[in-house]
Model the fold of this input.
Amino acid sequence: MVNSLAIVGAGRVGRALGRRLREQGWRIGAVVTRNEGTARRAVRFIGGGKAYAGMSREVLTARVVLLATPDDEIISAARQIAEMLQQSGGGEARSTVFLHTSGALDASVLEGIRERGAAVGSVHPLQTFSGVGVPSLEGKYFALEGDAEAVRAARAMVRDLGGRPVKISARKKRLYHAAAALAAGHVLAVEEAATRMLMSAGMKRHEAVRSLLGLTRQVLDNFERLGSRAAWTGPLARGDYRVILAHAEAMSELPAEYMEAYEALNRLGARVLADDAKSTLARLDKIAVAERQTRKSRRIERD
Done:
């Protein structure tokens, strides 16, 4: 049972981690989903394990139990496991580690299991999972927190996956996840908005996407090689406030969220990148006032 794994909630993350661990020699035991069909498909995808529709006591026979359910289902799954441990007298708890894969929640959501004597923790991969195939986890970072024994088990798991384990504070788990959302989902929103802006200027979608990806990748490469200050580019980096005002005027024809995001990102850039954040923010405030006055004047003229 040294490298045995049960998976509760074999969606994109659970299936991917299960498959990679099976390839590394882990024995896959119970694979639990809501119904038998999805459980069987998960077992086929993973290449091992036994399918169960709904919670089963078989999960307690594994050395590590991975709760990979959606965040709002973790507490319910943990409650069911805690009840099974209580019914059995808690003997399995002393030899089993329970880990969940939520990025925003810490190990305290498994408190009911911990109270039965088990070690609990969380292991969250900083990686997106599309559900199509399994991404390489080599060199990818995994955030770990929880009880010492659970963290040790999670660290061993991550190393078998080829990943890089990093221990974080449970108190800062939500902040950690917010950072990941900012760097992934919100960056995608910015790229899509920029793509639509180029399309409105006359470019075809594939031209807009390719040109922006090249630009963004270069900035990220510079960020990695040279650091944030040296990689910073654009009118705000140059202190070209007239161009920023011109951007604001040009974006007035777009939905309000575009301009609001542009202003917010300029202010964020000033806060984290500018040598003199206070002065830069003051200049941006003046531009915002001028831009609002221009919009007001245009509305008056139209009326």
Observations:
- Residues 277-302 form the longest helix (26 residues).
